[in-house]
Hints:
202 residues, alpha/beta, Helicase, Ruva Protein, domain 3, Dna Topoisomerase Vi A Subunit, Chain: A, domain 2, five-stranded mixed sheet, 7 helices, 7 strands, 38% helix, elongated
Amino acid sequence: MLRLPRAVRELTETLEKLPGVGPKSAQRLTFYLLHYPEHKLQEFADRLTALKKNTVLCASCHNVSETDPCPICADSSREQYLLCVVEQPLDVLALERSGSYAGLYHVLHGSIAPLNNIGPEQLFLHDIAKRLTGVTELIIATNPTMEGEATALYLTEYLKQTPQTPPHLKITRIGHGLPIGADIEYADGVTLRRALEGRRDF
Length: 202
């Protein structure tokens, strides 16, 4: 039986671990890269290495950035009394593109998903309470999925039981404009603007 070269097999196995890439797609990508010009392949490898070397997570909001603090946290002109909780850095990008929000963010890097062994401890969730000084409204902008809703409910209950939570903190949830099952990162600016304008007490 013909065996593929070890380097081909190992890269295919690595690519298979990426989200949305199955065995056949991984194999096709590997053979595509095999015929890529060597200087282009080196450039690709350098950029992969730079992805980790040249980025940091902001110690405050946990967004991906080149600096710590990130440009949003360092911008004193932002509305410091608003804090928006999102699942992923791409959600920050989408909300910023919409031009409808000028407050601060907190990026969880996921949502509570027991079936995937992701609990609150695997997310940047419990340090939100430390950021609430001067915040009058916490906007929960997790995705309108089962996992996003579970995360929103957990966060609300957690904050209610945490002594650091200001007594008059208003907790809202983005509402109209995002259909159930949709991801924030794929929504257009108008939809996101309506979702933010239609937020409700949670």
